[in-house]
Amino acid sequence: MEIAELLSPESVIPNLRATSKKQVLQELARRSAEATGLHERAIFDVLLERERLGTTGVGHGIAIPHGKLAELKKLFGLFARLEQPVDFDAIDEQPVDLIFLLLAPETAGADHLKALARVSRLLRDRAVCEKLRGANQPEALYALLTETAQSHAA
After folding, report:
1. Exposed (0-12), middle (13-18) or buried (19+): which is 148, by Cβ within 10 Å?
2. Is the pTM of this model over 0.90?
3. Which among 38, 97, 101, 124 has most CB atoms closer than 10 A?
4. Whole-angstrom Cα distance, residue 148 to residue 70?
5. Domain limits of the chain?
6. Of 21, 32, 13, nearest to 90 (Cα)?
7. What is the CB neighbour count within 10 angstroms for residue 107?
8. Which of 84, 123, 117, 121 lies closest to 100, judged by CA?
9. Are strands 62-63 and 96-105 parallel, antiparallel or unpaired?
10. Is 152 in the active site?
């Protein structure tokens, strides 16, 4: 499972404006709905439901919100770098500024978990995260996410 299979250059947001976790999730749902053709509310509800189970703020300024939707045909990823970090109830209590949203079909099974592991492995690399925080263009962010991912493959 490669990051390039989850993410397209159009699903990279270099400067997402939001002031709260809820606003971040709403904006991610809106952008995901545009890209997938699914209902924004359905996406938002799935993300909110997942957050109720426990935060997807994994620490070091990173969050990986995710969920499954029956109507989705294939795995979908969206990466956003926030203009300003927001409180995401992260496990280390630090604000979040790098977010990788992952949506999967209900039937994805192990592929969903493999994709989550892949994203997690990539974003655990502090050097990668620093480069992501320093890049301003969507093309540069996409290149960092996909090219760097090649060297982090399992």
Report:
1. middle
2. yes
3. 101
4. 31
5. 3-149
6. 21
7. 11
8. 123
9. parallel
10. no
Q: Which residues, 6 or more positions from 120, have their beta carbon under 8 angstroms from its beta carbon?
A: 58, 64
pLDDT in tens, 51-68: 999 999 999 999 999 999
Q: 31-70 b/e with 16+ CB inside 10 Å = b?
A: bbbeebebebebbbebbbebbeeebbbbebbbbbbbbbbe
Which CATH number describes the domain made up of 3-149? 3.40.930.10
Element (H, E) at 100: strand 96-105
Active-site pick, 39, 60, 66, 152: 66
Q: Say if residue 134 is exposed, middle or buried (CB neighbours under 10 Å; 0-12, 13-18, 19+).
A: exposed
Type of residue at 23: Q
